[in-house]
Fold these 2 entries.
Entry 1:
Amino acid sequence: MADHQRTIRIADFELPRGPVTIGALMTMSRASWEHLRSQINLRRQSDSSVPLARCRLCEAGVFIRSQATKTDHVPMFVHFPEGSKDCPWYEGRTLQPDDARAAQYQGHQESALHRQLCVTIEQLANADTRCTHSAVDTYLRPEIHKRGRWPDVYLEFGELGKFALEVQLSKPFAPEIAARHIHYDNEGVRLVWIFNVLEVPLPQGFHDVITMQRGNAFLFDDDAQAASIERGTLVLKCYLENGKGGWLEPRLVTLDDLQTGYGRSAFIEDRRSDLLVASSKEERSCWWKAFQRAQNDKPHSPFYSTAFAPAWDSLLLKVPGLETWKDEFWEARSDRGQAHVAMLFAILCSVAHSADTGTENVYITKYKGEGAVLAMLNSKLSSGDFKHCANLIDSFVRSTALADLAERPSLRRMIKQADDTEAQIDNEHPVWRAMARLFPEVLDGLVRAELDDLGRLPKWAVSSDMAVK
Ligand SMILES: [Zn+2]
């Protein structure tokens, strides 16, 4: 590793993701950077002229390389091979994808074990009377032929649909994984990758497949074979991620158990987006519970209640600079930072909950019924306390189902006035970052984009102009 300093320090992703530093990439969870890696490869396959992520210096497309270490993998940004050698961050020669694929494919085709597994799987599937057509390693249709792709095992299973089973013994190559998912999706064929063993540590290519399959790994082994014979249909062994870097107890599943209605992937249980959806709500629900307790704290204002203390302490630990801001805020306004953040939370919760239920509910100010959210926002922005958050509030509202509110003349006027008279916090500011932790679906570009990719953005966080996607 002689040339360690020559590495891409910042990659600019298409919005809403925005810039991602190498530091941020390296501290991400595996699920998060693997999602980015897959999205980059999917884009590369579907439209190579517009990269999803670009090098900050030379603006050429970059991908995420998974660098193997002794026990794991470390992600890093790398220029695609056609990138400029003149870029100061150019990292030197990279592996030529075509050579790698050719070498791998050669070995793959020659493998007698591979052939035997494919034939066995086809025979077992054929024992099921619903299987009307099957083929091993054959050109199926002119479309597939033209693009030079054919599945290891192809099955037509009546109403259950058409399946391409890729039996993968050697590690698959990332661009190939993306290409196959796009291809079969266009053909209306469900793609399922089947492994023979789960190596430890698992090579990145297998991780990439599991990412596409939302945390599901399918194996065809002796247990699966025995169960297939017994049940008279194809049975696979399914490993589901446990969310802690390991697996749940494996289950024996059939093609009937697959969820196939979610775009490019077939899986038993969505282990990735369920966890992402849950973790997005986690911090917010602590604050919400604290707020409910605080409301019983009469006659004091709920926002000054000690009920918020644990939630506030946890936020202080997670948001760098919040502690310092709290002290500065006290100096400037003689008010408690915790109460200010709690009020901002109540403002944004009013927007989010009203967007979610379609009924206007505000948790700060006394407005009720139709027009309550707009009246609350106008009153909070006119009072001075929240003028410095006008841009935050504006971009929050615009990213929700209540986006139309942001076009109301009264609110436009308030926001402009606030923007003209007071310095605005931006997305680097500790208060903005605190809100991004509480409402990542809207304010954290990476989380928002990932939920959107997976079709799991909650409806309150879907703005009307996103429907085009
Ligand atoms: Zn560059």
Entry 2:
Amino acid sequence: MVAQEVFWRSKSLQEMTPSEWESLCDGCALCCLHKLEDEDTQEVFYTSVVCHLLDFDTCRCTRYEDRCKLVPDCVKLTPQDVDDFHWLPPSCSYRLIHEGKDLPEWHPLLSGRQETVIEAEASVLSWYEVKDDEIEVEDYVDYIIE
Ligand code: SF4
Ligand code: SF4
């Protein structure tokens, strides 16, 4: 008997159902770190400044349904935006699949446990230093992650 191919290896991002698309997110919350863009080169730099709406126990957004209303910079990813995925962190599942790569072994879809993301030090909890309501925007540059 041939084992059924898992959806993230057999489908493109655009072919996934809404629930498959949602399950692809590993919950790392690295996209909740503030980013700075070089206006000349469009290069994106991640900072260790994180959105104040993140729950630091669960690594989840505390206002997920209202996130785009409350935080204008918060981006809701859609399959139509795949060409812009270069700004996502290299470990982001959507970026990996878009680039034709596989998911890491700590991804909840492979491990069967959400906690493996944090245990593998792949979540924002291993990177953030301050919340964005603790410092001024002008100071974000001091927190660029090398
Ligand atoms: S970086 Fe990607 S995988 Fe991680 S929380 Fe954001 S959208 Fe999900
Ligand atoms: S609003 Fe929620 S999802 Fe958006 S950046 Fe903040 S914590 Fe992350």
